[in-house]
Amino acid sequence: MSEEVTSPNYWKSLGELARNEEYEKFVEREFPENATELNDQVSRRSFLRVMGASIALAGFAACRRPVQKIMPYSEEPEDIVPGNPLFYASAMPFQDALTGIVVENNEGRPSKVEGNDHHPASKGNTSIFGQGSLLNMYDPDRSRYVRKDGERSSVSAFAEFCSDHFASTDQNIAFVSEANSSITFNRLKEQALETFSNAHWITYEPFGEDHALEGTNIAFGERLRTYNHFGEANVIVSFDDDFLNPAANKNSVEDTKQFTDGRSVSSPEDGMSRFYAIESTFSLTGSNADNRLRIKSGDIELFIYALAAELSQSVSGLEAFNGYSNEFSDHDWIPVLAEELLENRGDSILTVGRDHKPALHATVAAMNAALDNAGETVRYYDVPHIEDQNNQEAFAELAESLNSGDIDTVVLVGTNPAFTAPADLNFPDTLSNAEQVIHLSDYYDETSKLANWHINRAHFLEAWGDGTSYTGTRSIIQPQIEPLYSGISEIEFLNTILTGEESDGFDLVQETWQEYFTSNFQDQWERVLHDGVAEEEEYPTVSVSISDEFNTQVATFISDAQSSDGMELVIRADSTVFDGRYANNGWLQELPKPMTKITWDNVALMSKKTADELGVTEAGLGKSEVEVVSINVDGTTIEIPAWVQPGHADDSITITVGYGREGIGRVANTMGTDTYPLRTTENMFVADNISIEKTNRTYEIACTQDHNTMEGRSLLRHATLQEYREDPNFSTYESSYDAEMPGLSYAEEHGKDRPLSIFNSIDEQEYPADEPQWGMAIDLNACTGCGVCTIACTAENNIPVIGKREVSEGREMHWIRNDRYYDGDVNNPKALHQPVPCMHCELAPCEQVCPVAATTHSDDGMNQMTYNRCIGTRYCANNCPYKVRRFNFFNYTKEFLTTGDDPEIVQMAMNPEVTVRFRGVMEKCTYCVQRVNRAKIETDIETNGETKKPADGSVETACQQACPADAIYFGDLTDSESEVVKAKKNNRNYLLLEELNTRPRTSYLAKLRNPNPKLA
Amino acid sequence: MSTDYQYVPEPKLVKGDHSFGDITDLIAKTPLSPTPKLWYLAFGLANILLLVLLGAIGYLIWEGTGIWGLNNPAGWGWAIINFVWWVGIGHAGTLISAILFLFRQGWRTAINRFAEAMTIFAVMCAGIFPAIHVGRIWVIYWVFPIPNQMAAWPNFSSPLLWDVFAVSTYFTVSLLFWYVGLIPDFATLRDKAKSKVAKISYGIAALGWTGSFRNWWNYEKAYMILAGLATPLVLSVHTIVSFDFAVSVIPGWHSTIFPPYFVAGAIFSGFAMVLTLMLIARKIYGLEDIMNIDIMEKMNLVLLLTGNLVGFAYLTEGFVAWYSGYIYEQGIFWLYVVGPYAWGFWTLMFCNVVTPQFLWIKSIRRNVVATFIISIIVNIGMWFERFMISVASLATDFMPSAWDYYSPTIWDILTYIGTFGLFFTFFLLFLRFLPMVAIAEVKGAMPQADPHNYDENNEFDEAKTEPVVVQQEQTV
Amino acid sequence: MESENKQVYGVLAEFRNPKELVDAANSVRKSGYQDFDTYAPFPIHGMEKAMGIKESPLGWIVLGGALTGMIGALALMIWVMGYEYPMNISGKPFINFPVYVPITFEITVLLSAFAAVFGMLSLNKLPRFNNPLFNVDRFDKASDDGFFVCVEASDDLFAEEKVSQLLRENGALHIETVYDSE
């Protein structure tokens, strides 16, 4: 068709003209903007405007109305010093829960997202999605303008349309929105439902909270939000609940912190909680379990009932299960779990996977109540914005009424059902039955293409908003920058529909908050903007009791429950792209999945045994090509690469969704496989009796870890709590290898406590006394392996996205990698996680081999790379025993930062304090030297040159700051009171490859497990 | 009992009955006679390969080292392998011309010129790789201690820097040595040449050499000293190359046996390459009388010796790995044998350890075809040795989590093949325009050259060249 | 053939083989001549005795080169790493002799080699593009299979006839007077 394309004015037939127009639409989609408008977005002048605006919006200044005043730099805003970043509190919405954040803002452009210490759901930390959201905002592929029937239009045009179209308030309107905790949003939602008599509202999330809510509804007769207080529990039992994984738990940051708090051990006297995981796939959470049982997800139900039956003998409330038994009743785990739970009544938590069906949630809720955990370790909140309907059912009904033509207008707020809706609803076609489809979304996505109106949405960093945390703490979302593509937020969108006028998020939010702050509004408003949280108030908690309804229903549960037969398919949200909404985010795509270490793809996970039965081979060293399997569920077939996941349940396949998208953006397109077609209203989570077979096709997977065992090398030292108490020094070289540290006895003869360097004269490093000496300690007992350190480092240090090909070549650029080792039986191993950044060895092997002295030691004891001196022999990387050095084999940064037609946009996401590296130079972890030096300079100034040593805690590395488990300690080793020194004094402290006498400044605290001896 | 010990006379170095004049004509005819068709064909082929090399390097500089198969654990691949391989080959030349000279091995005269030429061209090929394998070739000059506005100097503790000095010194000294040896022969060609161009150009190269004995006197001294310098030099060069590995911490690299083991390997591969080239050249240029079977056998003996030295080194490494109880060293050796690169290891074992054993058999030592095949196999084997050392050790070192598999790209392969283009382009020019045998030295080594072999009528007396048979009585 | 405006350079005699050349050189020296030289396609053993040449000084020149190289290299490295720009590299001492060994050795060898080659050339007064002997056609054999003695006119005892006589007695194949060209 290129003929017609190149000369659109000449066509030989109408047919060609038609195709020609199609093509032009297609062009529109593929190349969102033409050059002039691009420049307009980021040209110098409007750049200043952007800057001025965000300053006006920020903190105090933000309280003048109207705020969107353009401030040219000639009027110096008092609180900005070029070169010094400003930090603004805000919050990140994810489904209907806010996580407090603080955004680093350089000359008016947000460049880094950090957690907000004051916010209960953050406590200063973030999740991988929190870190990744920044790149989402700068995504050049986001939709850049309003479209009517695919043609370019404008917000004002849309407003006109609304004032006309929504004049008739009695039409049948269906609102479909993402889960949203925004107070303003829900206020407008109520308004809408009042205004439009025949409107109904469906909150549609492909991976939502519905089943849990239904569960409490059955168990307690109320739709309540369950909140597990992991920090207070002695015993945690998780049925398929991957609660440490942000993709499976919208409150993962807080829960991770809670979980690790409950397990932190500083001396052999301390106790730690015991965590049992019963699951099919090997989840991130399961890898942190003390005892893990792998069973098919389809059998979890039976297991839960069996446990309930066992408990029913000793506790009241579960009578309905009396006498019930099934194949799991005599499973050795049941009595052990029952015993543990009964011993810890009120101190235990049972939790079941978000996507399991309501019956399971109900039973688990009942068990928690029966064990007196309810109100103690498990709390139930009455969340105002949660409807009384089962939204998944409501959504299915919507599809029906659409088919029967009962719906005139569909308003889709942010969701993308055309991609994510259950396949059997055939949503794309059903949607065509509505007269008007209006869609607000970030991308011109699958649904937008079917809508009459597509409204491009403003990112949460670009627009005013508000909302509540998982537990109900209110925050205000304040924009950090003027919308790059002049999109509008969901509240502005809704208000435009209601009023028919273009609206202003700022006014809407203030209007909402007027209700809360009746007296001196300004001050309170400013305080919230400044702190990022209103106050530590929560949703009302509800004391629950098991309803009779539950006991009657149990009968049907039991009778319906049967053991899973044949091969089962489990469909989960993806660890890095979730339901597909992060598919166009390079940082997240290149972040290795926590367990498989796969990047850029989704695969079908299966156990070794299952793989052998299917004739599927395991990938590994020198083998990145894996077999493709075809999976058939009720006649629908997809083909997807197979991957052996040690510890996966047999006869069970796990796939994740969110991949295989088309026409979304440069990153998302054609990456991975779209697995939604297998997800139907029947099989939202588990499908039984599926057929799967190996095809003769193979597919290359970019996996960052080709070898999974430690080969008997004591790199990641671990013990059970019991062993630790018996031998508190189990993590020393001596007890790890049962041999003396080479050269130690000789050193001791010379009164040294560590092996000497061959140059005795300078055996102890001479560092200037007035300099701080930096060091790091990583607590492997806290680390859950979530990988947020890696992506935080990527964001902080301008690490380029290099793409699947380069990763599969083995050239990943991450400065801190997350090693995952399997330990034990290949079918049912334990997994261990170990983050590995540069060790900053005092006797660094990398330094002496560089022919041009491009890597040397600084006075504050850091191993430094001099990029502009490096000639790229790669000798340093070869000689690094930890293999933490990364080489720019191509001009990665340039390729990354000049992609597409308007590179300036991605460039805005870069951290101005960190050099971007050129082709042919080596790079590696710097201990965030830019932060260290800023702190040193500030201290120097504050103390009038008295000291260069920043106070403990005033320097945080990006990885440390992001880590919700607080697993990373960093500080000055010359300060005996500093956290890092305390950590290093712990008897679990050990050095990686200590025997090489490289004297790493980074050390590890050995991991502990607390398994139940009865299950050993 | 008594045994008769007889001195077994050395076989004649130059076969057939040749006068000084014959020797001159035999060797000088090639440079002075018109170019044969075959030469043009060979030269054409070599040039094509040379262009491949230039193309590959050009693309490398344009795109970056990423076009090679390198990755994160394996930062060094074919480039370094080829570097070590070519340098190793070079060593034979210097060894023959210097060490055998000091040991008064007359038979070296037949091949030393030839071998030295090979050395120089091999070192040229080798030198390319360290230069182009760096990420930013345009600042490669930073490795030289040149005063600069950054006040930045190279790091003299880096083995890579030692390499820079070792290899460049080695190249320069070899070149000087070679040229000094050529001066009298240039004079011969100058005097033999008919065409004016040849006369003038050879004349310039000869620096006005007359054959004056007073000159010969200083000349021999200089040659002796150069030989004395080149001997430790040649040993030092591969020692320093081995430091690139031995000085590091990587298991499979960090080993004190490397220097002697590398030198032995270098001589091993070098002699193999000399044999390969010699056996071709003697055929084409009809030099069977000079590069004769006796010399081939002597070289085969060196091959046998060094081959077994190398084999012994492998054994020692394995033993040390086991005996040290150092798990990483043990790990790497286990991976050599059964790991992802086991195929490379076994190829190397066959080529370097098994093949040379055939040379215990005299008939094979004296068999041209067999020798030719063995020489080629040995060179393949030595390439694989370097492959195992560089890549296998790197790709699977301390941290199993970082292990990765290295496989070359087409560009690695083209670059390697290309260097043969460079090598043969120069070698063919050498064969065409320079005397491939040291004329003066061969003459000097002929019995007629020794005044003592003349009778009272000043006539050459064959009998005098035969040494006296010494009768010894020995009683036990 | 010889004309008046040509100056005698010396008398050149050819001999059959090395043996005769050595004997000839012997008797020439015995007859007290100093400025003479023998020419052969290869160095002949025992000729130095026959001509009474003393040890070549080349060794000392090379020693000079060697010392320059060694001291220079060490000085550079010590100055750079110890004083000019000291850096903490792998926590090793700034002045660290073991690592200086290889480079010191290489530079020593390099400068020695230069000294040897250029020393030799200068001792031999080479390169030299013109030599009166080249005017003699048969002298071309000197690089092939000719053995020559040339007694030079610069010698005090030089007298064309006497020299020719002496050489003839030693069995010269051919005797010829060599003239300097203008």
Explain how this protein is built.
The complex is a heterotrimer of chains A (1016), B (476) and C (182). Helix content of chain A is 29%, strand content 19%. Chain A is globular and about 90 Å long. The N and C termini of chain A lie far apart (67 Å). Chain C contains 5 helices and 4 strands. Chain C has a 4-stranded antiparallel β-sheet with strand order 2-3-1-4, covered by helices on one side. Chain C is elongated, with a radius of gyration of 25 Å. Chains A and B meet through strand 29, helix 28 and strand 33 of A and helix 5 and helix 10 of B.
Short description:
Chain A is α/β, with parallel strands linked by helices and 1016 residues long. Chain A is globular.
Structural class of chain C: alpha+beta
Cα shape of chain A: globular
Specify the biggest β-sheet of chain A.
Answer: 7 strands, mixed
Mean pLDDT reading of chain A: 86
N-C termini distance of chain A: 67 Å
Reconstruct the topology from this structure.
The complex is a heterotrimer of chains A (1016), B (476) and C (182).
Chain A: H1 2-6, H2 14-30, H3 35-42, H4 44-57, E1 86-94, E2 97-106, E3 109-115, H5 128-137, E4 147-148, E5 151-152, H6 155-165, E6 173-177, H7 183-195, E7 199-203, H8 210-220, E8 225-228, E9 235-239, H9 252-261, E10 274-279, E11 291-294, H10 297-312, H11 333-343, E12 348-352, H12 358-370, E13 378-381, H13 391-403, E14 409-413, H14 417-420, H15 427-431, E15 436-441, E16 453-456, E17 465-468, E18 474-477, H16 490-499, H17 505-516, H18 521-531, H19 548-560, E19 567-572, H20 586-590, E20 598-599, E21 604-606, H21 608-614, E22 625-633, E23 636-644, E24 652-656, E25 686-700, E26 702-703, E27 718-720, H22 721-726, H23 733-737, H24 744-749, E28 774-779, H25 788-796, H26 803-808, E29 817-823, E30 830-836, H27 845-848, E31 855-857, E32 863-865, H28 875-878, E33 886-887, H29 892-897, H30 904-907, E34 922-923, H31 929-942, H32 958-962, E35 968-972, H33 979-985, E36 989-990, E37 1002-1005, E38 1007-1009
Parallel strand pairs in A: 6-7, 6-14, 9-10, 9-12, 10-11, 14-15, 15-16, 19-24, 21-23, 27-38, 28-37
Antiparallel strand pairs in A: 1-2, 2-3, 4-5, 4-16, 8-13, 17-18, 19-25, 20-26, 22-23, 22-25, 28-35, 29-30, 31-32, 33-34, 36-37
Chain B: H1 20-32, H2 37-63, H3 78-102, H4 112-132, H5 159-192, H6 196-206, H7 213-246, H8 258-284, H9 293-324, H10 327-338, H11 342-354, H12 362-365, H13 368-395, H14 410-433, H15 439-445, H16 462-465
Chain C: E1 7-15, H1 18-30, E2 36-39, H2 47-51, H3 58-84, H4 97-123, E3 147-152, H5 160-169, E4 174-180
Antiparallel strand pairs in C: 1-3, 1-4, 2-3
